[in-house]
Amino acid sequence: MLRIECPWCGVRNEDEFSYGGDATLERPSDDDSIEAWSRFVHTRKNPAGKHTEHWQHVNGCRAWIVVERNTLTHEIYSTAPASPILPAGKKSTRGLNT
Amino acid sequence: MTQQFRTAAGGLIDRSRPITFQFDGKTYQGFHGDTLASALIANGQHLIARSFKYHRPRGFMTAGSEDPNAIVQLRTGSRKEPNTRATTIELFDGLEANSQNRWPSLAFDAMAINNVFSPLLSAGFYYKTFMWPVSFWTSVYEVFIRKAAGLGVAATEADPDHYEQCHEHCDLLIAGAGPAGIAAALAAAATGARVVIADEHPLIGGSLNSERLTIDGKSGVEWAAEQMEILSKMDNVRVMTRTTVFGYYDHNTMAAIEKVNDHVAIPAAGQVRQRMWTIYPKRVVIAAGATERPLTFGNNDKPGIMLASAVRTYINQYGVKPGTRAIVTTNNNDAYRTAFDLHNAGVQVLAVVDSRPNPDEHLAAQLAAISIRLITGKTVGSAEGRQHVAYVQLVSTDGHTSDPERIDCDLIASSGGWNPNVHLHSQSGAKPVYEDSIASFIPGISRQDESSVGAAKGSFHLQDCLDQGHAAGVDAAKMAGFKVKPKAKKVATAKDEGTYAIEALWVSPTPHNKSYKQFIDQQNDVKVSDVELAAQEGYDSVELLKRYTTQGMATDQGKTSNVNALAVLAGQRGDPVPEVGTTTFRPPYVPVALGVFAGHTVGNDFMPIRRTAIHDWNVKNNAVFIEAGLWLRARYYPQKVGDTLDDCYIRETNNTRGNVALVDVTTLGKIDIQGPDAPEFLNRLYINNWLKLPVGRARYGAMLREDGMAFDDGTTSHLSENHFFMTTTTANAAPVLSHMEYYHQTVWPELDVVFCSVTEQWTGIAIAGPNSRKLLEKVLDIDISNEAFPFMAVGECKMNNITGRLFRISFSGELAYELNVPADFGEQAWTELLEAGKEMNVSSYGTEALGTMRIEKGHVAGSELDGRTTVKDLGLEGMANRNKHFIGKHNSQRPGLLEEGRLQVVGFKSLESGRNLRIGAHLVDDSIKLDSVSQSQGHITTTTYSPSLGCGIALGLLKDGASRHGQQIDAVFPLDDEKVRVEICHPVFIDPKGELVRA
Lengths: 98, 999
What we know:
The complex is a heterodimer. Chain A is mostly beta strands. Chain A is about 10% helix and about 35% strand. By secondary structure, chain B is an alpha+beta fold. The longest helix of chain B has 18 residues, at about 460-480. In chain B, about 50% of the residues are buried. The chains are: A mainly beta, B alpha+beta.
């Protein structure tokens, strides 16, 4: 069971969240090619180690958040709101193991 | 005479409370405080089970949850429980237990013939023997193996007991309440930290209850009881007895099983039998103690051979004598205690056999003082006797085996050393490391917030346990932010018990070097020779060995055997033990019943049930329900006894198409969207255009996923400036909301729009049929003539005292409206509509008629929106506006999605009178017998009998279907050998021009 710190609600169980995939991808623009759009949807790195990913606090405040997680150890380094313009949203760097 | 093996006095049993119980049909007596094992030993019953493979007689090897042999079938009827350990079952009045894996009886077991044929049953024999022919796998081999290798029989009736799940948060969780755990709890609790301490036994104290130890001048038993008293009175401490911490998961999430009522015959009314705890501690102290391992010698599995520490537990804690003439065999100092305790209890100790040539002088002197013979440099080479040990043969550890000394005895107390319980540490992701000084594994570097203390860390000295526990408790409190006062309570002081020393002895020589069965894993009958054979055959890594020989894979998880097996493997490879490594321990530490994982989520409580505001009316009116996700929806409404599903939905469909009827459509997802950028937001979500939808109008929209596949469809209405109202399909209500939140929060945060789900807040009622306007005109306050309120009009309205919203939309293909009212008025609106329509014979209809009419009208739904279809495949491509950006726009144009040969939505009519079609039927050309999916040209997705057309119809996905209207094809269902000739047609079966909905 992962324990994920929602920037709004605090540390919560993994089963309150749903996984939303790689958060580092940049969405192409309407002018970009079909190939670029296809890569955006289908091409993924599979890092062994630190991964920056989207999660949604779906059974909580419903915020989408960015989680830095180690795919090998499940250590979570930080969590932050996904929205760049949501208010306050201090980035949490409190490790869950400390 | 009963209980002839009780000591004269002593033990933690209550001799004033006798208990009557049964084993294998025979009645025995024990005392309150006994386990099933101790009570049977008190009665001289040592034979408890037959072994798994060879059906050899087995007795009690240990006195705890690590026992490999003493597994019995407990209770009867619906509470029957196989494979429970007699060594952990607390005795209760009326307990019934039976031995398992034997026939016809425990003393005479016909399957013991396996013991004679054991050379055929060596490591990997399943893989070697049960190979050919393939047809024998299920018909012969499996039947044979299942019969021969059964381990008890599960109950066939439903479990009548209740189980529950609880969560607990704390600063410190201590696993194990022996001296180290207690010291940790006292130290941490004194600071105010919130402490949970759990122990699998009914009493706290651990080894203090089974040894004769002294702390602070008191007996260990007394001291433990006093600390229990102190701890249980503290508000910040929860002492959990009968609770085993069995799992260590990510982020310090711990699981524990509390056996609340396993020690009584039947739980009292309203009580649970077991409770599952998920515990979230900031820090974990593992004070789980250590497990003794046996020495490995010939016939070391005979009843009467016990771990030296188990013998002490039976004597000291339970007041029973496991034998009358004992041999103690050891390679370490600890087992000498057994000789002293046996002597103290009046059991004759014939010899202490120490494999070391130069044992501890102090201990030797103590033995001499009570005239117990000490034999050094020798060990037990074999045990002999039929169903119990009768004598041993001693051999020299230097390899001199030709003149074994015989000693007659009925008890062998064996100790091969102690293994710290590193299970939880390993489960936390850390790697135990080998420690030469104790010839075993100790915890390595921590990976989570845990530390091990005391015997679990490899420290077997009582004062060390108390000191380490205290220090760990102080540290945990500090880390959790509590202040430790300088005058913190002093650590308890233990009376010195001498030191622990060991010289590893992994396998004993055998008398005359003859071949003997030397068991390592007694539960799975794995012998030294099996490990050697596996290594010879190339299975010489520990993970392979485990799988090939099944070493450590029984229900005891090799607690007493894994280190011994590892050492034998190391010897075979010629490597030191640490180079062979150790296996990873996995939860659960002890077997956990499945019922407690399920907890209360069984039967109707498996998932939450969502009910609409019309639900109670539906129940009163005999609706038959169907599950739609979590929702319960009315499927059809029988009107009289004997009404079938077909009777009902045909009647309901006919009344809709010919008159007027109501259906509850509350379950559609509803999302309220507000803000100046709402039109732009919708414009990007949907493939069609939303910028110019006027106030007071609804529009049908389709949305794609980012990969270009069709995602969902529904109508969205423009209620007022900056205010929209979206509907989704029932199934996609939650995913669509998440999808919108994702784009709003991460991709387009600049859009000034807010939205939330209002599915539960509004009751939706569809009023459909040619007379629907006439009905609504009677009750609504607004003009709903075709001119004032045309197709796709939206407006606020009042029905008596209820303010609602009216939408002129149609899913049935008839003139129809959808009325939304606040959920609190849902049932009132529904009954008032029915009342108003009584004179025109209005009726209700369920999802079955709803589905029939949607198929007749050719509306695609979940079965066609299967994640593999594009809007082109669905015939909705004309809606897409490619002059704007929308989600999935580019990916929907990938070449593979535009090619010919894709499956496209079409309709089908059965050409065979009276024969309906089957969902999942494959579409194949004439005269082809379908034997490969590659011959399939598509499949039927949804079917019904059409009351309007008078034949079976269907929607389906067919290769290039849009261009094949009018052709014929076979719909085949090979599972039932069915074939129906169908005509391919346009998916809209009725009113293709949509004149009815606009009437």
